[in-house]
Design goal:
binds fe (ii) ion, Purple Acid Phosphatase, chain A, domain 2, 6-stranded mixed sheet, 5-stranded mixed sheet, about 290 residues, about 25% helix, single chain, about 20% strand, alpha/beta
Length: about 290
Amino acid sequence: MFLCVSLWLKIGGGFRFNIILAILCFLPYNCLMKVYAISDLHIDYEENRQWVYNLSQSEYKDDILVLAGDVTDEIPLIEKAFRFLKKCFKEILYVPGNHELWTSRNNGLDSLEKFDLVKTIAENNGIRLKPGEFGPLSIVPLFGWYDYSFGPPSQELKSQWTDYKACIWPEGFDEKKVTRYFISFNESFLTLKNSFIISFSHFLPRVDLMPFYIPHSKRYLYPALGTHQLELQVRRLSPQIHIYGHSHVNMNIKKDNTTYINNAFGYPHEKWTTSKQLLCVFQLPHGMGDL
Ligand SMILES: [Fe+2]
Ligand SMILES: [Fe+2]
């Protein structure tokens, strides 16, 4: 059974969405086009891969999947997963995570070239890395990285964080420049208007999305979670929902008129902070998404 949240329709959207809400009240569940979110599939783990390949190829035929990064760093696995997922969902919108930019198993490419390769593979399989408009709903991918605006990196982070070893950047690129590079792709999307907007990123737009119960011993990771630059972009776009990944800590919290949702699948052992199922974040009557 998949969780489904239709109450988002109650927030914002104006008159047009009040009409949609009224229609939804009278429609059976299977007459709705649903938007599902998931991130951090990490399909290099057998258990995770099996979950993906057990997804129904008929149940989501009219639905949209928002895939918020960290599928895997392995190109053959990414390619196969994209091909399979595109058979399951009508539309998939995707941003790469940090794991996709690891170059250790892809000799000869730097991380920006790996980004371009993953992007090309996604697009060749009909997966979007650009905004999609589905009638009154727009879904907007936001690229990013981390620039230490959430705090300076400690020695512990520098010695343990795999990105420092697995990512290779062109000469002159440090984390701040990498972040500026990816954030700049989002600029042209930020003036987009529609009745309802869902944006998504792999990285966190704000560090206060991390819950209070995270032990202090794990907080050395916070500087590598995201960037304040993303928060500024989310504020400009003003989506009703922003989906993010990377933290592997499921979350649903409203801040400044935007509901932030994390539905990471996570590593096999992360059973406490992840629900390991698709999350329906929005639904529209069939046909309305084709307007
Ligand atoms: Fe991840
Ligand atoms: Fe990540």
